[in-house]
Amino acid sequence: MPKPKLNPAVGLSPITGGYLAYNSTTDVLHELNATGALIAELCDGSRDIEDIFELASPYLPEEQYAGIDHWIGNGIEAGLLIWGDGAVVPSRSLSAVELADLAANLRRISRYETAYLCLQRVTDLTPDDSDAWWHLGNTAQSAGRRAEAANAYEKYLEYASEDFSIRHLVTALRDELPPPRASNECILQIFRSFAPEYDSKMRETLGYQAPERLQEIIQSAIGDATNLGILDLGCGTGLA
User: How is 172-227 classified by DSSP, letter by letter?
Assistant: First the structure.
């Protein structure tokens, strides 16, 4: 009888309640619950469907173990599983680099919760990587996980104690009483990081057009303003 096994292109990563299974060939991510994780582990190429059914059924409710063959069929169709020849094929674990790259792709399409699960595993694998903790905190914040974001940022601060902007952010995430104002160090850090990208963020990303609109207003009031130079003080002042 045919014996299913994990596709060699699929890497696994444990998460709470199951597995992430990523197919690097098709660039498809599968999220397996506890039932799916159990079946995937049993699909090592050495067992046919009847063997898997016999081993899995004592651990599953009747409505779940009755659909094991259907789950395997769907796994074959999705490229998660392939048919084997009886040889045992151990599963492959996703590396920290693979998980970090996967998380970056997931963030780009706003799948923050799954990206958070990937980055959780990255910090498990690389607990001394400060960047990993920063990315976990940033993604947890995007996913609405305030407590988890604060915890990750605090771990990051163990390696980057001079990051005053993150220290200020943690106060907000903890819902603690804020200081009367952000520290000078915090303000300087924020502006230093923002200044090089000010023009692109204001003009391209936000579509800031105050100088053009002001020139139109002046032109409608006094006529030709094509040679008029406008100094924009900007940054929300409304002054030009």
Answer: HHTTPPPPSS--HHHHHHHHHHHGGGHHIIIIIIS---HHHHHHHHHHHHHS--TT
Give the DSSP per-residue string, 128-153: T-HHHHHHHHHHHHHTT-HHHHHHHH
Using CA atoms, how far apart are residues 105 and 235, in angstroms rounded to an integer?
A: 32
Q: Tokens 């903790």 appear where?
A: 133
Alpha-carbon distance of 120 to 40, in angstroms, equals: 22
Task: Give the pLDDT confidence of 67-112 residue by residue, as tens digits.
Answer: 888 899 999 999 999 998 888 888 899 999 999 999 999 999 999 9
Output the CA–CA distances (angstroms, integers) from residue 18 to 64, 174, 182, 224, in the order listed.
15, 29, 42, 69
Reduce the DSSP state of residue 99 to 3 states and report it: helix
Q: pLDDT by residue (tens digit) across 118-146?
A: 999 999 999 999 999 999 999 999 999 99
Q: Which two tokens stand for residue 110?
A: 């706003």
Residues 6+ apart with CB under 8 A from 191: none
